[in-house]
Amino acid sequence: MAADPDPKEGAVASTLEEVLRQAREALADLPADRADDVALRLERWGPDLLQGLAVYGDDAPLAEVVGLVTAAARTRRPALVALDKRRLLRPDWFGSPDQVGYVCYADRFAGTLRGVGEKLGYLRELGVTYLHLMPLLEPREGPDDGGYAVRDYRTLRPDLGTLADLGRLADSLHAHGMTLTLDLVLNHVAREHDWAQAALRGEEPYRSYFLMYPDRTAPDAYERTLPEVFPDFAPGSFTWVPEAVRPAGWGPGPDAGATGDAGRGAWVWTTFNDFQWDLDWSNPAVFCELLSVILDLANVGVDVFRLDAIAFLWKRLGTTCQGEPEVHQVVQALRAATRVAAPAVIFKAEAIVAPEHLPAYLGTGRHAGKVCDLAYHNSLMVQLWSAVATGRADLARRALAVPPPKPVTTSWGTYVRCHDDIGWAISDTDAGALGLSGFAHRRFLAEFFTGAFPGSFARGEHFQANPATGDARISGTLASLAGLEAALETAAATGRTADVDLALGRIFLLHAVAYGYGGIPLLYMGDELGLRNDRSYLDDPRLAADNRWLHRPWMDWTAAERRHDPATVEGRVFAGLRHLARVRSGLPALHAAVESEPVDLGNGAVLALRRRHPAGIFLGLYNVSPAWQRVSGVDVARLGVPQPWENLSAFAPRPEDGELALPPYAAWWLTRSPG
Ligand code: GLC
Ligand code: GLC
What we know:
It contains 23 helices and 24 strands. By secondary structure, it is an alpha/beta fold. Strands 1-2-5-11-12-13-14-17 form an eight-stranded parallel beta barrel, surrounded by four helices. A hairpin with a 4-residue loop joins strand 15 and strand 16. The longest helix is centred in the first third of the chain and has 22 residues, at 32-53. Bound molecules: alpha-D-glucopyranose (2 copies). The site of one alpha-D-glucopyranose has 9 residues, from loops.
């Protein structure tokens, strides 16, 4: 990997002075205190901005960025300026244990944005403070990858509402102490986006927003080291676009002669689907376009930007083109610029990468604390599913110990399910250390979670099975993967409900780890009611080819009406989650500043996660098996909880014969006894 350029400090200082002067001028008509605030922030984060923009060398679009930032700062609404102040006084607001996230498609949850606003009471019951609405911006027509193929970043999907509706929703979320998260697709746009259409016609500057090639030479060279994201429905990372106008310098296209047009045809970089065109982030104009989108949405009231597929932003020959150093530099520049204009706003990384690469997205080395504030903890999610499939926690213990620590100012997004498939990110090294084959274990998980493996409780489907690598990811809702779908069928057929109880135990356990890990637990819509796989997507030709819709159900409000009835499945799951949120908010040791460390209690079926927080030790004990398990009371005491108090069931576990006994799928949140 290339080292990122490091601008000389003297140069930075004099440039910073120039930037401040330009900003002062642009802010001259603001009240003096407002202008001072912005200038102070520019002094504070300007150096980060300059370091980040150094990725563009002499082409760094400094004046333009300062122009965008000051314009955004000037037009920020008073309510948002007040929010900026409050969050600057509490910069760790998103790390506090009272945070709970909820993720949904607005239409599937409540029809429209206005409908979402009417459901805040429901969300508050669950303790939700953080609402992530899946892609809302206007997508292309036809297949749109769940909204991740954006046609226009300045318009909302008309069926959901307008930007004004979004602003109103943000205001009412804020009034309830809640925040709004929106997806920001930075890596690619829909091929129907104006920029892509202009590029198709061969028009500059837009052609240079994309990565287009005259023939297979460059694509072949890149593909030697590029993994495939969608090997099944979008093989390769480039798409031949026959109608693209070729620039003069390219010569005739391969379609010359025959029926083709020698002046047309190009290979376009499309990491994901053929209708998602990757942007060329080495072009500073692309940076400015997307920064402007971020700042405008921040001023509508968005609090958190989820940087979609962020790892893929920067391309370099001979690499996987994921997580190149420039990715972090670009994000640092976006982050610093946004902090100056809208300090209430934070960034979340969607980087589904190996654990050892993940902390870089929260900032390591010279980017520490300067890039994203939140990142998905993909490895925790994968390890949880592996643990309940095997009834063993030793692999999780090893894998969760590997990553270097994240900056204390950042936090994880912890989750059990999301809108995407599960990729079996089990490392060969971790598996090998336990005498397992990584390949065989990944195969096992892929078979287990379809239900094909003998004795499996799960109901899921393969996603993007890749015969070349043997990889197969999994689609399916949390409840179906955790055994509830199969158990309810058994109960209906035989009257036997034992499996239902086990499945509910598993569901609670999985959530208890996510809620007790430290970070914002992110619930995916419907999981709070145990919704099962939804096959209705098969009737929609726009969706039918992508079985991730299996686990993106429509909200079942009839099922939701049963949520307060403890005799129902919905009531049991919902009550469990409410309880987790309530107990969690009273435990200071769950503040995101410290990490959970796996510890060994000598029982491979018990995942033990310890948090050493100045406010007190927290020890999470999770029995990932359907059998009773014992751990030594002396060992638990030695880990810092001599007289343990179990916070979820509010009791003091007492050792018998020196041992503490955990029931099947027990989740214990231990702290020192309050008495
Ligand atoms: C992200 C989204 C996923 C989408 C992909 C391409 O990974 O989570 O749903 O397919 O980006 O935008
Ligand atoms: C890959 C990408 C991830 C995306 C997913 C979509 O795993 O790394 O970003 O969410 O594909 O299914």
